[in-house]
Give the backbone structure.
Amino acid sequence: MLRLPRLDVATPTDLDTALALLATPGARLVAGGTDILPNLKHRLGEPPLLVSLAQITRLRDIIEEPQAGVLRIGAGVTLTQTSEHARVRALFPSLAVAAGQVASPLIRNMGTLGGNVNLDTRCRYVNQTDFWRSAIGGCLKSGGTVCHVVPGGRNCVAALSSDCVPVLMSLGASLVMRSPNGTREVPVADYFVADGLRNTVRNDDEITTEIRVPLPTMPRRTAYTKWSVRQSIDFPLLSVALRFDLEHDRVSAALTDVRVVVGVLGARPREVTRLEELRGRAFNDPEVIKAVAERVHAQCKPLENVPYEAPYRREMLPVHVRRAIAALVAAG
């Protein structure tokens, strides 16, 4: 049995107290604990203090603000609550699907949306026991000086395996961050950087308080699809979030915008480019499916940073894209 290192846990009931505790050198945040606690058991960090956000009730609200044009989702809302909330399902079905496919029901009941957004990057050479890692001398992310995925590489390429982040990027969402110096809002697309050691722009003294998702202003079809060896528990080995904005609320309508975001490639999701060429085409045009699938395959090249062979994962990407779009068209 793997045990946690010795540490203290604080359970503040308000954000100001949580921020003050977070100033403790080496302190870490914990919400549901479904990611950080297994990592600490593997000795991927030994913080002296965990600051729990579980008792801060203001982080658990979901508020629709039509005048502001956003749906505000508290960072402490669980993945189960996100997937089952009526307005999330109606406005952002791809987000509801993504949250509802994370791991297992027990983990979704504990894990939070804010925690899934701030999920630590993963790698087949890192997420092992300390004993296992010591046998290969560690790596860039675990006390070593080499990258076993990209020999000679200077940057860590551990992958972000969050289910919800690609969807939030495709929806144009932003994160609200609170620190002792005030509040700032960061687009999800700008929040992540290509460095597996520290893949977000969050400062050590900041807490993610809510996720703001712009309300749709026109008819839209969205989907989230992923592939993993098992349908539960496992992290995705690849994931795709798709968004199609339409002139009218029917599948034969012309496309006004297309956004596709692919996850589990590296430390940040990849937004597929050159999709503006599809604007004006009918959504149910078979050439749309073909074009999106081809662009995903051409622009996305998985690495050997998570289990399963990278070439196979790459070939699975267009398969899942075609299936997801075909399902949207068939649904009418």
